[in-house]
Design a protein that fits this description.
about 375 residues, binds 2-acetamido-2-deoxy-beta-D-glucopyranose, 8-stranded parallel beta sheet, 8 strands, 12 helices
Length: about 375
């Protein structure tokens, strides 16, 4: 064996030992802690009880109630919507990852912004439960200043301002940097193994400009993570465009350990409105080649999916098995979400486990 070959095979042998989790070899089986540190009214309507209909996101809630009343409501929600018992249930069911959506305001509130601070402590608390019980954590910047998608789940619904102001981008980079620095400490390094730079950026109205800005942001956020953390995987969301757009994260040697995140719901959009359950199951198969091809480039995970369909399916177990089988043919999945405040079981991991629909530790095979 030549010296170079020897050196290469040593690297090939040693590199995986550095991972906190063998991505690409063992599937991610995960769950989102949704509607927690970034409110979503449809998921936890009780947090909005008694408020006018137009108070429909966290920004408006805090603005409307004023700081101390908003803080009271949020803290009682933060204290109860995710518990250690939930984490233990997920571990025992065979899950191995938890994704924690965060708003930028967990780190950075400017004067004049109504956000309530304190949510970061809860993220740390949940990460601690995951560490205790042996689950990996993905920290996910879900809400950026100005909003990257105009949806309530960015914290502020309405206009999409993120891309149009350098300060919005640099504040977000700083948040990601702080998460990465925190996660590099020895007590977290092996638990917090993925940092996601931004959730669901939307490009459509102003596609070329926003895509350019998003790529700039992804580059800066990647560098910020790497300046602080040599172990975490950096996850990028596909922005709902063709996955091939992101292959440069593999082809450009500047980048390493990048994960591609795509979200595959079958409930939003006209094409899903009138399908039978069997057709929904078949749709999962249609994703298989595209996920497989992407996964040959970058670890590719389905960071959000659910069992919700417009007409409802009465064989949720088949629909789950089919999706899980396809997603595990790539690098795995995170279900949305851990629970649902309206008891919509198709959106709730707890219900789906209790009902036997999702069986993470069984061999989930897709029939395609
Ligand atoms: C983000 O940028 C937009 C567009 O310039 C601006 O209107 C908005 O105030 C910024 N948001 C924050 C939170 O700074
Ligand atoms: C992260 O932590 C490791 C292990 O303690 C250390 O070697 C490294 O210098 C730290 N910083 C970066 C940027 O990785």
């Amino acid at each position: 064996m030549g010296r170079i070959t020897l050196a290469l095979s040593l690297i090939a042998c040693l590199a995986p030992l550095a991972f906190s989790w063998p991505y690409g070899e063992q599937p991610v089986r995960g769950v989102n802690l949704g509607g927690w540190l970034v409110l979503e009214k449809w998921m936890t309507p009780n947090v909005f009880s008694g408020l006018p209909d137009n108070i429909n996101d966290e920004y408006k809630l805090t603005q409307y109630l004023g700081y101390s009343e908003a803080e009271q409501r949020l803290r009682s929600h933060w204290d109860t919507w995710v518990t250690e018992a939930d984490i233990i249930q997920f571990k025992n069911a065979g899950l191995n990852h938890v994704r924690i959506p965060l708003g930028y305001w967990a780190f950075d509130i400017k004067s004049g912004e109504p956000w309530v601070s304190g949510s970061w402590d809860y993220a740390v608390k949940a990460a601690g439960w995951c560490r205790t019980h042996g689950l990996q954590v993905m920290m996910d910047l879900h809400g950026a200043p100005g909003s990257q998608n105009g949806n309530d789940h960015s914290g502020q619904s309405g206009s999409i301002g993120f891309y149009y102001n350098d300060e919005n981008l640099s504040r977000s980079v700083n948040v990601v940097r702080q998460i990465a620095r925190w996660a590099n400490a020895s007590e977290w390094r092996n638990t917090v193994s993925i940092i996601q730079t931004l959730n669901e950026p939307i490009l459509w109205d102003d596609y070329d400009y926003r895509l350019g800005r998003l790529k700039d942001y992804y580059g800066m956020a990647y560098d910020a993570v790497r300046a602080e953390n040599d172990l975490a995987v950096v996850a990028v969301h596909d922005a709902f465009i063709d996955l091939t757009n992101w292959y440069y994260f593999r082809d450009d040697p500047h980048y390493w350990w990048v994960m591609l995140d795509t979200h595959l719901y079958q409930v939003f959009g006209d094409e899903y409105q009138d399908l039978t359950c069997e057709q929904h199951e078949a749709i999962a198969c249609r994703y298989r080649d595209r996920l497989g091809e992407a996964n040959n480039k970058l670890w590719t995970v389905v960071g959000e999916w659910s069992l919700a369909t417009p007409r409802g399916c009465n064989n949720q177990g088949n629909l789950a098995r089919q999706q899980i089988g396809v997603y595990e043919s790539a690098s795995g999945w995170f279900f949305w979400s851990h629970n649902n405040g309206q008891n919509w079981a198709e959106w709730s991991m707890k219900h789906s486990l209790n009902n036997g629909w999702i069986r993470p530790s069984e061999n989930n095979v897709a029939y395609c």
